[in-house]
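ok here's the first one, seq then struct tokens
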Amino acid sequence: MDKVLGQAGIDALFASALAGGDQNATLDSPELRVEEYNFSRAGQISNDQMRAIGTVNDLFARNLMHTVGAWLRTEFQVALVSGEQMAYNEFVDRIPEKTYVSSVRLEPLGAPGLLEVELALASPIVDLLLGGTGKAEPERPLTDIEDLIMVSVVQMIVKELNVAWIPVGLHFTFEKRESSAQVARMMPAGEKTLCVCFEVKMPEAQGVINLCL
């Protein structure tokens, strides 16, 4: 028996595989649909996915408002402002020179993320936790003690992220505060990221919290 396939036999095998095993299918069969793939859209979040993510972030904003407000014993309004995809370097360009940025890890993906709290919020929050009134002050670098206090604040934010993102199957882990130089090297410049912005209003201060995934 001749076990060597001719070109016709090879074509028939490929046609069968492409048709899902239909031995009668050919490359010209109507069952075989070839669609053009746009590699520039790889990793693009669909509108339906963005709406679902918006629902999750709305829940996070409400939970954070109640949890942190009760902790600080003051009004702490949180509202989702925007959620959009952008290249990582675009996000980095938007970050103020003076700010508080922490790295987070997304499991089980093992992917890096960033959580930014503007100093316009960080300083009043720390002031309240130290017994002050939470009054807005000119932006300045945090002291070592204030930096340690902010770790507990960020950990609380991450805890509420985990509560809201449970349905998505992602878990956030706080890592550490990052310098501007470290932030710039966290991901490739052209990496597609999901950036979510939340506006926070306190009695005497306001600012934003940004999440970059």
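and now the second one, same deal
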Amino acid sequence: MKIHPFAEKFPPIEGAEWDSFKASVKETKGNEQPIEYRLVKGKKELLDGRNRLRACEELKIKPKMRHVAIKDDKVKQFIIRRNINRRHLTAELRQELVADLRADGQSERQIAETLGVSNATIHRDLEACATNVAPEAVTGQD
């Protein structure tokens, strides 16, 4: 199954954390939270659950899957919402996400709301980004 490129920005679980995660999937005889995908030209595109899918594949357990209907312009926000509370964002990853959302035309305020951080943090992240290119248009107010 193809993984959405934006989902790839969140690094996979590794090391002892991976071993613990995989053991949890084994203990529950599968993934409790379904792996979410959308259909793109009739093919599954994974949006959330890459680690769950990998664990199920390694354990030879059929994963629970759920189809979600997400439009292209909402995919990034969907992926962020699914990952933001599960993972600790490094400053570098947060800056990368901020730059991507800004390039999509989101306002600093919208990005701050999506990531659950202050407007000042988003402003600093944009200043720190080497790819700080202003979008042609911004939706919402900064």
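notes on #2: The chain has a mean pLDDT of 88. The CA atoms of residues 77 and 114 lie 7 Å apart.
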